[in-house]
Design a protein that fits this description.
The protein is mainly alpha-helical and about 400 residues long. About 55% of the residues lie in helices and about 5% in strands. The protein is built from 16 helices and three strands. It binds nitromethyldethia coenzyme A and D-malate (MLT).
């Protein structure tokens, strides 16, 4: 790209569209194409989905997959950063139990920053990634009032294992739970530079707020039902459907549209085909829970909803997005309260947003960093006037 090359024709029709499609910068961690979806540092997501979250964090930060030696050194590096600063549990103990888990997560991240921030972009981003499994496990435990006998944080475990060890729920197949969570984390880590939470996090960081404040802001952005919380809403809606009879499913989808409610788990600002992250999760579901009652419902929903949504030419993408299947898989492995589902999205996204913040603050513009975000807004219904 040359300095003066024209890359976009901006017209007034682009105003007030949520900056849809308007290029604002470059991204070094991932790109999204309308038909093939997200690629991390060039690799299609489907080729990375079964790798370990640690190796994918390494990829997002180093832009190359690790060798075996690099992978093992990186795991040790994360291990050395994993201990939470003291005082976090005392803060969690004061939070309202009926507060949404995403609000707990945002406050939890702020708390990590207040108690353990060091003021270095890369160090804080990696420390936060290393501390997320324990923080999230503690959020579950304190919010559910299960504060007795919390296992100590076993730093020798992989990131996912540290979370499930802290959570410590009985009567579940921990191996399957760990597998589903590992895949979930890898699939959700990054999605280009312009998704709402990543953009919001980078915007906050551009004013030189800390990594923790920026990430808490990003989590607040992720908590909306049109963005990350669609996974909670989609599973709640699958439970309401309650049947895999195609005629009933179709009636339900039409009813939601008539009531002017979004059909969660479908549509996308950029994608124009089924999200490959959904395709991967369906394949995993076919392997681990093909006969689960909710999986049967989403299997039918995946066929019916695009058919119904495509009757409305305004809807640019009637196909399934990342949020259609994740709740069903999490529920199957024993994580049965949908209010927590977006916290897993947040846990994963901390890696991509962290890497993008580090890039924007320390690498881009020859290391000088991107200046403070300041797009232009055009005055509407504001003639110049004066106090008489
Ligand atoms: N259900 C109902 N209406 C929809 C849907 C849907 N799934 N998708 C798009 N529309 C509507 C949209 O609200 C808009 O209506 P209006 O013109 O009255 O404002 C119209 O169709 C055109 O929207 P698009 O240009 O197709 O989509 P846009 O880029 O504005 O929005 C989403 C993208 C993702 C916000 C939208 O598709 C949606 O609300 N989907 C359901 C919620 C969801 O699953 N979100 C998760 C997205 C992925 N993520 O995790 O972040
Ligand atoms: C995401 O993963 O952030 C979503 O698919 C939304 C987006 O890319 O705009």
């Amino acid at each position: 790209m040359g300095d003066e090359e024209s890359i976009f024709d901006l017209t007034t029709a682009h105003l007030n569209t949520g900056m849809r499609g308007i290029p604002v910068g470059t991204c070094r961690t991932s790109f999204v194409t309308p038909t093939e979806g997200v690629h991390y540092c060039g690799y299609p997501i489907s080729e990375l989905a079964m790798m370990s979250p640690e190796d994918i964090v390494y990829l997002l930060f180093h832009k190359e997959l690790p060798t075996l030696e690099q992978s093992s050194a990186f795991r040790k590096n994360l291990q050395s950063r994993g201990t939470l600063p003291s005082g976090v549990e005392e803060v969690l103990a004061t939070l309202p139990k009926d507060g949404h888990p995403m609000d707990w997560l945002s406050i939890g991240i702020h708390t990590l920053g207040m108690l353990g921030g060091v003021g270095d972009w890369n160090e804080d981003a990696l420390n936060l990634i290393a501390r997320m499994p324990r923080l999230l496990g503690l959020i579950f435990r304190y919010r559910e009032g299960r504060t007795e006998d919390i296992p100590s944080d076993d730093l020798s475990l992989p990131l996912v294992g540290r979370f499930t060890n802290t959570l410590d729920i009985e009567n579940v197949d921990k191996a399957v739970m760990n597998r589903v969570l590992s895949t979930y984390l890898v699939l959700h880590m990054d999605h280009g530079g312009g998704n709402l939470s990543t953009f919001a996090g980078k915007a906050v960081a551009s004013g030189h707020a800390t990594v923790y404040s920026s990430m808490a802001g990003a989590m607040n952005a992720l908590s909306g039902p049109l963005h990350g919380r669609a996974n909670q809403s989609c599973f709640e809606f699958v439970k309401r459907i309650g049947t895999s009879d195609p005629a009933d499913v179709e009636r339900f989808v039409r009813g939601e549209l008539e009531a002017k409610r979004p059909v969660f788990g479908f549509g996308h600002a950029v994608l124009r085909a089924e999200d490959p992250r959904a395709t991967v999760q369906f394949a995993l579901g076919e392997e681990i829970c093909p006969d689960d009652e909710y999986f049967r419902i989403i299997r039918i929903l995946r066929e019916i909803a695009p058919m119904v949504l495509s009757e409305n030419p305004k809807i640019s993408n009637p196909n399934a997005n990342v949020d259609i299947a994740s709740g069903t898989l999490l529920n199957f492995v024993g994580l049965q309260d949908p209010e927590y589902y977006t916290t897993f999205f947040g846990w994963a996204r901390v890696a991509g947003i962290g890497a993008q913040i580090v890039d924007e603050r320390t690498v881009m513009r020859d290391g000088k960093g991107i200046p403070i975000y300041r797009p232009k807004y055009i005055a509407e219904k504001q003639n110049l006037r004066h106090i008489d």
